[in-house]
């Protein structure tokens, strides 16, 4: 059995639409990764800030240390939220909905196959019969 998922049963416009949806989801995945990076960097900065406060306090700069501790340590990064709350809201209200629509589109239009657009591109661009240009691994029935 072959793993060719180029889906000749689908029209080109459907395949192109599925490809754009897949590309959009991949872009959302990158944005999500950057958001998690923002979350981790902000958290690390707050911990470093706490170290700075203690060092400044130990060096006798208590007024500055107290002001930093009161006004900046643990501060919300956006209105009413720490970064973990931003990440959770993004995941619950956008990322998961996006993924669900991608899954629905694939289930309804391509039998669940992913990357149909890319599979067609591979079929067009590979040199048939040439080593390292195989359509895909051959799956063996057990």
How would you describe what is shown here?
The chain has helices at residues 12-58, 62-71, 83-110, 116-125. With 142 residues, the protein is mainly α. α1 runs antiparallel to α2. The chain is elongated, with a radius of gyration of 25 Å. The termini are close together.
Break the fold down into its secondary structure elements and pairings.
Layout: H1 12-58, H2 62-71, H3 83-110, H4 116-125
Helix pairs in contact: 1-2, 1-3
Give the key terms.
142 residues; mainly alpha; 4 helices
> What kind of oligomer do you see?
single chain
Class by alpha and beta content: mainly alpha
| Strand fraction | under 5%
Number of helices: 4
State the shape.
elongated
Cα-to-Cα separation, first versus last residue:
12 Å
Helix content: 55-70%
Overall pLDDT confidence: 91
Low-pLDDT parts are none
Taking Cα atoms only, what radius of gyration do you get, to the nearest Å?
25 Å
State the major sheet.
none
| Extended strand count | 0
SSE order, one letter for each helix or strand: HHHH
């Amino acid at each position: 059995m072959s793993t060719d998922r180029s889906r000749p049963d689908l029209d080109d416009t459907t395949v192109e639409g599925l490809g754009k949806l897949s590309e959009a989801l991949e872009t959302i995945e990158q944005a999500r990764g950057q958001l998690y990076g923002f979350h981790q960097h902000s958290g690390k900065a707050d911990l470093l800030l706490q170290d700075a406060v203690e060092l400044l306090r130990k060096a006798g700069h208590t007024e500055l240390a107290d002001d930093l501790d009161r006004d900046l340590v643990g501060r919300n990064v956006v209105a009413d939220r720490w970064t973990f709350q931003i990440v959770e809201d993004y995941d619950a209200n956008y990322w998961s909905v996006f993924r669900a629509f991608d899954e629905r589109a694939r289930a309804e239009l391509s039998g669940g196959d992913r990357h149909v657009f890319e599979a067609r591109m591979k079929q067009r661009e590979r040199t048939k019969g040439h080593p390292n240009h195989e359509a895909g691994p051959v799956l063996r029935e057990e």
